Amino acid sequence: xxxxxxxxxxxxxxxxxxxxxxxxxxxxxxxxxxxxxxxxxxxx
Length: 44
Prior knowledge:
mainly alpha; elongated
């Protein structure tokens, strides 16, 4: 399991436990990093 999958699972678990205030920033950070990594040219 990769780090993003684990973070998504953590955020989902927090939401299920009623802690959307913590889960929301985790989801947003994952989304921002994913968007950034798609726009960044690969090194090589």
